[in-house]
Amino acid sequence: MQKKLIALAIAGAIAAPAAMAADGVTIYGQLDVSYDSIRTDADTANGDTVKGTLSRVSSNASRIGFKGKEDLGNGTYANWQIEQQVDLDAGGNTWATRNTFVGLGGGFGEVRLGKMDTPHKMSTGALDPFADTMGDYNTIIGNGGLGSLTPYTTNLTTGAVTLGTTRVYTGSSDWERRANNTIAYISPNMSGLTAAVAYVAGAETDINSTPQGRAWSLGLMYSNGPIYAGLGWEKNYNDSTVYNATTVPATYTGTYQQYMGAFIKNDTSTRLGVGYDFGVAKVGLVMDRIQMQSEFESISRNAYLLNVVAPVTAAVDVKAAYGKAKSWSGTSDTGATNWVVGVDYKMSKRTKLYALYTKTDNQTNGGYGIGQGAGGSFYNVAAGQAPSAFSLGVRHSF
Length: 398
Hints:
By secondary structure, this protein is mainly β. The protein has helices spanning 2-14, 119-122; strands at residues 25-30, 33-40, 52-59, 63-73, 76-85, 100-106, 109-117, 146-149, 152-155, 161-163, 168-171, 178-186, 193-200, 214-224, 227-237, 256-259, 264-277, 282-294, 298-311, 316-325, 336-346, 351-362, 388-396.
């Protein structure tokens, strides 16, 4: 019934002003997704000069379509069709940019392939009372603000590397992501405990291409009565981004090449969250630790966030949150604090009005913004700034 209503709504939206009545609407499509491990041979004709293995999750001509036909009489008819490619592996094509996957489930749990939230992200998401707003906890949690790695100089003749004395601050905010090219397993609920594990494939196009963020992600979630707890861990491999790298021209004849940011070998995040509903209020605590490792050094930062939601009436909730990110190890004044206050007014089970105010105070070298996690409303800042925002909105869920 739901499908029929949706289909009729779509047909109505595209019908001519004369309000043609469709005889029927057909929804059709194909969802085909695979995990591919490709062994290559040296083949210079195809651009491959080294043997090796490539891995990726692929969406194989997946699509969804809507079509209809109306009999106009006298052997004539009007028909229409809308068909859209669905990239289950990476989203895109204007839509399918959020969780997009195909899966198989049963008593054993569920296996999914496509683009989806990582288990690490899922582990504490239930502890964010300002999720998807300018007060989203991703302002602090899962956000490195301005991390840092030591610049280094490479002798192009001898290969000797000399670490610099001035640090360059680099962003690190990839821990609340919806990962492309992912294969995941989610366990059945075992007396309130659910486990999840995901592998993010490199999605290389040939053996010489740069891996696009291979990763492992784990999550444990426990929800039983008034208690919630979540534990997440994620490790990204082979992130070859060189921040602010100085490109050396082909005509360069000097001895040294200066990199204004170190080669990121891998980075790791671990988080723990707990929450309890006392009836008069819900209280939550989330702690996370991010570590970045280059060829020559490893740096880390710790953060935490406290929040509370208090129902004033059946329709009104008052909320507040306070988060603090400490400075990255080996650096000074790269931390920040953020606080949020807000109120929700529930007009129905699916519609609410809300208002909030949030402010971030950065230390001299800190670069945390506001609204991280709120999509297009995210506001980034330069080091040392103190952004704030007021937000008033309406949310309808269906």
